[in-house]
Amino acid sequence: xxxxxxxxxxxxxLFDDEGxxxxxxxxxxxxxxxRREQLEALGMVFTALDADAVLIVxxxxxxRHRNTVVALETFAATYDLRQRRAATGFVNxxxxxxxxxxxxxxxxxxxxxxxxxxxxxxxxxxxxFDGTLRIDLDIDDTPxxxxxxxxxxxxxxxxxxxxxxxxxxxHVKSKAPHGARSExxxxxxxxxxxxxxxxxxxxxxxxxxxxLAAEDPLIVLGDFNDGPGLDEYEELxxxxxxxxxxxxGQPAExxxxxxxxxxxxxxxGSAARPPATARFYNDVEKRYLSALLDFIMISPGLxxxxxxxxxxxxxxxxxxxxxxxxxxxxxxxxxHFPVTLDIEMEAFANPTAGV
Length: 355
What we know:
The protein is an alpha+beta fold. It is 23% helix and 22% strand. The chain has seven helices and 15 strands. Helix 1 (35-49) crosses helix 7 (324-333).
């Protein structure tokens, strides 16, 4: 089975209110890429991925006037994709949903949120992701109230063979210091944003621990806006949000694994630079910056299922670079590149067999 995660930059702009693809020559959110060009590039990328399920980060909006599932399934029909069914969870107000586009011949999924419903009053342990977590962020003996701007998508997935596993799709809030007017503002807002981000990651980690305790085969994937050694705030707080979710420092049976999330000298083999899943243009420095933000982490029991990860980076993957049409499509489609996991999910017949 092939499972992918893909942050599609402002996919919402590519559809009208009826969910039909906007094949016009108006500009998309991509620099000097029209909406038609971005859609065609995405069609080529999704076809090449040939995944059984794709977690789409920044999926089309779901609101009173728009429908995420309709837009994604219309997109799939337009490009004759076998991933032709879509699933969503708790919607948000950012016009960037988290959704799964999947092949119904290979698996079925259902939204299955865990945790107690606590609403705005909040809970102290691991409440449902559309609620509020009470946690002391600044060690002042007063609980802060933390929410997800994009609640993680929790799915129970069942393979055609009957094998079941859990998926948690993630788009953790960015740490960018929006609204800063001075260097002092940048520092203050960045530290506050990092605290909130780490709190969200602690909340997610608690859910992960519950699944590990239940021996659920688990995949946590998406855009974490974080990665090994990403910025100086990781050193300030002692660990990254990704470290928290993965269980860095815990025994092997309590950790999630993605080879790209490993840190330390030599952790990425003989590569001249660490891997990257995103490429952004810095208008000030007039150059492209790369970042490792997207991951597919698996529970310990799945390590025996022959997992193989791949980052579909057009300049780092020689096989992709050798196909000019795919290379250009990846560059036009988004500022992130897909990550795939090939794994023998159907090798067990129930949620805990072989775990």
